[in-house]
Amino acid sequence: MIIELIKQGIGPDKVPMYLLDGNLSGTLYKDLPAGIMKGVKGTTPGVKPDSTFRDRLLSVDPTLTDFTYSAESYDAVVLLALAAEQAGATDGQSIRDNLISVSRDGTKCTTFADCKALIAEGTDIDYDGISGPIDFDQNGDPSYATMGVYLYSANDKYDAVLEEFISGDVPAAE
């Protein structure tokens, strides 16, 4: 782990480091020398939720400080509910059999309520959620993804500087 390397004198000031989502939490580095992480880059899958969505989450739990995967988790629940609505059933197989369908090739909708209303009318839907477009491929795998590239600033918080989001198609599994 990066903390152990830094304690041994092998930190980002000596060796270039690039971190992944599980190593990006600012709380991991609170006891390290100030500024030791400055300039380190890292990536985390998913989008940075907008302030409206973050405010909704904070209204449920005002102590939240990390919103990583929140949009994707929310969208996963909505997709499950929409698949159940379309199937008219809540068993696992029915939901599985409808997940791909509610994620692509239909009328675009972006909220559970709007999508549910379209399903009730018999319309094939394509849910695009808070995390962006969601299109499962024929195997049920995501075919589009977003990664955030972050840069540690002087205060050792990975989200202090969002350098960019990179979105694109995900190659199908063979």
Give a short overview.
With 174 residues, the chain is α/β, with parallel strands linked by helices. The chain is 32% helix and 20% strand. It has helices spanning 2-7, 51-60, 70-87, 92-103, 112-120; strands spanning 18-19, 41-45, 107-109, 125-129, 132-133, 144-151, 161-169.
Question: Count of helices?
Answer: 5
Note the main sheet.
4 strands, mixed
Q: Given the helix and strand composition, which structural class is it?
A: alpha/beta
Distance between the termini: 33 Å
Could you please describe the fold and organization of this structure?
Helix 3 (70-87) packs across helix 4. The protein has helices at residues 2-7, 51-60, 70-87, 92-103, 112-120, and strands at residues 18-19, 41-45, 107-109, 125-129, 132-133, 144-151, 161-169. Helix content is 32%, strand content 20%. It is an alpha/beta fold. It folds into two domains: 2-45 and 143-169, no CATH class; 70-130, no CATH class. The longest helix is centred in the middle third of the chain and has 18 residues, at 70-87. A four-stranded mixed beta sheet has the order 1-2-6-7, with no helix packed on it. The chain contains five helices and seven strands, in the order αββαααβαββββ. It starts with a helix and ends in a 5-residue tail after the last strand.
